[in-house]
Amino acid sequence: MSQEGETPEPEAPAVILPPGFLRNPVHLLAFGFGSGATARAPGTWGSLAAIPLWYVFAWLPPVGYWLVVLAAFIVGIWLCGKTAEDLKVHDHGGIVWDEFVGMWIALGLFPDTIYGVLGAFALFRLFDIAKPWPINWLDQHLPGGLGIMVDDVIAGVMALICLWAVDVWLVPVMV
After folding, report:
1. Residue 145's Cα: distance from chain center in Å?
2. Residues 6 or more apart from 5 whose CB is under 8 A from it?
3. How far apart (Å, rounded) are the C-alpha atoms in residues 85 and 59?
4. Across 114-135, average pLDDT
5. Residue 80 pLDDT greater than 70, yes or no
6. Which residues are in coiled coils (predicted)?
């Protein structure tokens, strides 16, 4: 932040995607099938794009569901790391595979109403944007694809815990 009378610091220039960048399947996945290529709020668009894909495997038994999420996390470390390396940027805002996995964690209670899905979305975005401890620390200290993925995984876990707490403590009181 600048003091009164000082020149404001210039914003970091946006990284322009090279032509044909999303034709590469690795980059296409890391950019959430293109949802992260938006000019504004790519993380929010990526989080929204994760919801329809979640419906594809939400019906699985819990063990199957969490194995899919774990596989997406492990693959995501490589996808995000490779895409960041190709762009020569640590964590390009358009890389949203981490938002996909974070959302799938937040949706892990299998909300069966639109309110549950909206609650998971809102809480995940809150934690992902605000980055409370330990998210902010992990985001700054873990390198490569792991660093890109872990902060969103923790945001998803925090959202899941909040949803669980509401389900356990608030819903029975209201019924």
Report:
1. 13
2. none
3. 35
4. 94
5. yes
6. none
Instruction: Take residue 51 and report the two structure tokens written for it.
Output: 């919801």
Contact by Cβ (8 Å): 27, 21:
yes
Q: For the segment 68-77, what is each residue's pLDDT rounded down to a tens digit?
A: 999 999 999 9
CA atoms within a 13 Å half-sphere pointing along the CA-CB vector of 105:
29
- In the structure encoding, which two tokens stand for residue 168, read together? 């356990």
Query: Closest by alpha carbon to 146, among 101, 67, 81, 72?
Result: 81
Query: What type of residue sits at position 165?
Result: A
- Quote the tokens at residue 174: 């209201």
Per DSSP, 6 falls in state S
**pLDDT more than 70, % of the chain:** 87
CA atoms of 54 and 102, how far apart (whole Å): 11
What one-letter code names the amino acid at 94? G
pLDDT tens for each residue of 12-66: 445 577 778 889 999 999 999 999 998 899 999 999 999 999 999 999 999 999 9
**Which H or E run contains 44?**
helix 42-57
User: Distance (Å, rounded) from C-alpha 110 to C-alpha 140?
Assistant: 31
Which own/partner contact pairs does 59-67 have at CB distance under 8 Å and 24+ positions apart?
A: 65/108, 65/110, 66/108
R_g of the chain computed on alpha carbons: 17
